[in-house]
Write a structure and sequence with these properties.
Length: 573
């Protein structure tokens, strides 16, 4: 791994540079030199150099008068081809760069889901498939209706224009023939319009190649770290920005209702106090942000007491409202091999609106150019040598899960109970029925040309599975996640007992500390959430700097009309 220039520019140089883990974060501190607890200081301390954290660090460091320190649990992604190459994303799951969370027993769903969370600079944007959707107007308006004043579509949509990522449509060279034929079959079988440029205009229905945050010429990611941090790490032009890599934040220092800083442990086990002159910003993601709060005594008093953790602030919403985009799968064997070109093997998707009263899409599909059989194989199905998959996905799942601690030991991972496919608040089986509807629609697409000519047979759930109850049971047992957990420290109004942060992203009841990451989502966007997280980061930077937000604009109407404003190559006109 090449050295990272930003690591060599401490804001508060220790007397003995050899004892400074930040001077060489990859190596940490050599055992003989540790002085505990050593103290580091910066104006702003950001916990988590992930998707939102990279944005905020980069934006704050634009002001040379400010010192910014980022604490990141993973190593740098600079020069790591296995991370930077988008198409290698599957190889990152379950490896050394994955925190590997699991779920509790899911009686109505699949208890064997691995919830990958990236342990590397850039966070999950260094791990994921980089499918890039600006949230729909209905998604932001839902946030404001849930108590997030000022987060409506007119106010938030302009932040899309601020994003530094290279957001382009899947390049022509990466557009696989079978995916193109699938798009044609969807159009004729379901009457859904093709969308060329999903981010050009809001939509409710549509099929097409995705926009991705990537560089088509070398298939490199345009992750949060690549877009927001690498230019400065390479140029060395942000001496006020310091990264502490492979360093774990395990407890917030709170005194008299104010966050003073955070206790961290370096790779070598040295305890360090990191003090914030101005504010602490927690950006550790939807799992690790509530985990850190709970271990710091911020959360439901009774739960903390039961584990022997002193309650600093009774905040009952910490860990509640665990959201996700659950999905299942239908798999086909193809007559033979599929052409190999692709951006990341799931380059196209479909949005459907079943309920005319619903605002926005209510059923989504990813199209995979591979047989996605991890869960069917566990149920006894065979993986075909050549195949493809469609994955019915629930944009607005009704399940509301919960994250909680099972031990006061910060090393013990928290429990994640997603409550997948439990009856909805109105008693309905909304989520289960969405999968059934999805499998049936997928079969219609499979029967339509020019896609049908590729397919030899349906492998999972299998053509003999036709009754709704049978489809539902198998689809739920084979359900997986698309790794979108969110909502566990949700934003809300002052009278909302379960809100954890206010619309300024400040933790309610404390000063000097905000949260900015997927955990603050009050509700789940219908689309993939990463751009929403980046936009939360941009808005958080404005709130911290007191800079004006971009001028609000009247949001465009959500439309089902076809769009043709982008060219095929990389999406640029
Ligand atoms: C495999 C996968 C595929 C996905 N595909 C897509 C997609 O195609 N499109 C899309 O829109 N979304 C996708 N997502 C979801 C999206 O990537 C996430 O919602 C988003 O990146 C979350 O950003 P975040 O800032 O909340 O957290 P993260 O990006 O996870 O950042 C958290 C950071 O904090 C660090 N950290 C955590 N705890 C600590 C601690 N205690 N001390 C120090 N550091 C800590 C972590 O190492 C990490 O770098 C995918 C996610 C995954 C995992």
């Amino acid at each position: 791994m090449p050295p990272s220039p930003a690591n060599a520019s401490p804001t508060d140089p220790p007397a003995d540079p050899a004892a400074d883990p930040a001077a060489d974060p990859a190596a940490g501190t050599s055992p003989g030199t540790a002085r505990t607890p050593r103290t580091l200081r910066a104006d702003y301390v950001i916990i988590g150099g992930g998707t939102a954290g990279s944005v905020i660090a980069s934006r704050l460091a634009e002001d040379p008068e400010l010192s910014v320190l980022v604490i990141e649990g993973g190593p740098s992604d600079l020069g790591r081809e296995e991370v930077l190459t988008l198409r290698r994303w599957l190889g990152l799951l379950g490896g050394e760069l994955d925190y590997e969370y699991t779920t509790t027993e899911q009686p109505h769903g699949n208890s064997h889901i691995l919830h990958s969370r990236a342990k590397v600079l850039g966070g999950c944007s260094s791990h994921n498939t980089l499918i890039s959707f600006r949230p729909l107007p209905s998604d932001w308006d839902e946030w404001e209706a849930a108590g997030a004043a000022g987060w409506n579509a007119a106010a938030m949509d302009p932040y899309f224009g601020r994003l530094r990522n290279n957001i382009v449509r899947v390049a022509k060279k990466d557009q696989n023939e079978i995916a193109a034929d699938w798009i044609e079959a969807v159009k004729s079988a379901l009457g859904v319009p093709e969308v060329v440029g999903f981010n050009d205009r809001p939509f409710e229905e549509g099929v097409g190649f995705f926009d991705l945050s990537y560089h088509p010429e070398n298939n490199h990611r345009s992750s949060a770290s690549v877009a927001y941090l690498h230019p400065h790490l390479k140029a060395g032009d942000r001496p006020n920005l310091r990264l502490l890599l492979e360093t774990w934040a395990h407890r917030l220092d709170i005194a008299e209702g104010r966050a003073k800083g955070v206790r961290v442990r370096t790779a070598e086990g040295e305890e360090v106090c990191v003090e914030a002159g101005r504010e602490v910003i927690v950006c550790a993601g939807a799992v690790d942000t509530p985990r850190l709060l709970l271990h710091s005594g911020i959360g439901p008093r009774a739960d903390l007491k039961a584990l022997g953790i002193d309650c600093v602030l009774d905040l009952p919403g910490v860990g509640e409202n665990l959201l996700d985009h659950p999905e299942s799968v239908i798999v086909w064997e193809t007559h033979g091999p599929i052409p190999d070109n692709s951006a990341m093997d799931s380059d196209a998707g479909l949005f459907v609106k079943r309920d005319p009263e619903h605002r926005g899409p209510d059923l989504m599909f990813h199209f995979y150019q591979i047989p996605f059989t991890d869960n069917p194989e566990r149920l006894g199905y065979e993986r075909p040598e050549h195949g493809v998959s469609m994955t019915p996905n629930i944009p607005k799942s009704r399940s509301r899960g919960r994250l909680y601690l099972t031990s006061a030991d910060p090393e013990v991972k928290p429990a994640l109970d997603f409550r997948y496919f439990e009856p909805a608040a109105d008693g309905s089986d909304y989520d289960g029925q969405t999968l059934v509807d999805g499998i049936k629609l997928a079969r219609k697409v499979a029967a339509a040309e020019p896609f049908a000519k590729w397919l030899k047979r349906e492998v999972f759930p299998g053509p003999e599975v036709t009754e709704d109850a049978q489809i539902s049971e198998l689809a739920r047992k084979a359900a997986h996640t698309v790794y979108h957990p969110a909502g566990t420290c949700r934003m809300g109004a002052a009278d909302d007992r379960l809100a954890v942060v206010d619309p300024q992203l400040k933790i309610r009841g404390l000063s000097g500390i905000r949260i900015a990451d997927a955990s603050v989502f009050p509700t789940m966007p219908a689309v993939n959430p990463m751009l929403g997280v980046l936009m939360v980061g941009e808005k958080c930077a404005d709130l911290l700097r007191g800079t004006p937000a971009p001028a609000p604009q009247a949001p465009a109407q959500q439309s089902t009309a076809p769009h043709h404003s982008r060219t095929e190559e990389g999406g640029d006109a």
